[in-house]
Design brief:
It contains four helices and nine strands. It folds into two domains: 94 residues, D-Maltodextrin-Binding Protein, domain 2 (3-Layer(aba) Sandwich), CATH 3.40.190; 64 residues, 2-Layer Sandwich (Alpha-Beta Plaits). A hairpin with a 5-residue loop joins β7 and β8. It has 169 residues and is an alpha+beta fold. It is 22% helix and 38% strand. The strands form two sheets. It has a five-stranded mixed β-sheet.
């Protein structure tokens, strides 16, 4: 199945050595130079028009909350490629074309935090990887874990809202 690489690059590309390295890494991995998108990504639209698209999304060392825009877009992180100490590329596919690369997965949930919740989640079930506060007073939390069913069960038992799994790596 032919894959169509797309590199999302939210920064200026001219003279950016990390950008050039990202294009080279994608070309080596796929045999094709990626299309480059510098404006906002619309994952549902991308995957609707091209279900086999693979989006390479850079996460820079100073990035926080990068995964929030993946929620609800049918986009799943399937792998990550470290291209430099400052940047790694998240490999994103349409949810129905995604397969896990490894045993860990990224899970996202909207929560109203309580001490018992964090005690349970920072265990063998899942570990907090990132958090982002919203204007509505909730927290979007990103967890790394191995078992999605256990993760969902703990979330539901504690009365929290589950937004879905956004990736595997």
């Amino acid at each position: 199945m032919k894959q169509f690489p797309i590199l999302y690059w939210p920064r200026k590309t001219t003279g950016d050595t990390i950008y050039q390295l990202a294009r080279k890494v994608i070309n080596s991995a796929t045999g094709e130079m990626p299309d480059v998108v510098t404006s906002d990504l619309d994952f549902p639209k991308i995957f609707e028009s091209n279900p086999n698209a693979v989006v390479y999304y850079p996460v820079f060392c100073e990035s926080t909350g990068w995964w929030g825009e993946l929620l609800g877009g049918g986009a799943v992180v399937t792998d990550k490629i470290i291209i430099s100490p400052e940047c790694q590329l998240m490999v994103i596919k349409a949810e129905n074309n995604a397969t896990a690369h490894g045993s860990h997965q990224l899970f996202a949930a909207e929560i109203y935090p309580a001490s018992g919740f964090f005690k349970k989640m920072n265990s063998s079930i899942a570990t907090v990887a990132d958090m982002l506060a919203t204007d509505a007073g909730t927290i979007l939390a990103l967890f790394s874990g191995k078992n999605q069913n256990q993760f969902v069960n703990v979330l539901e038992m504690t009365g929290n809202s589950y937004l879905g799994c956004i990736g595997h790596y």
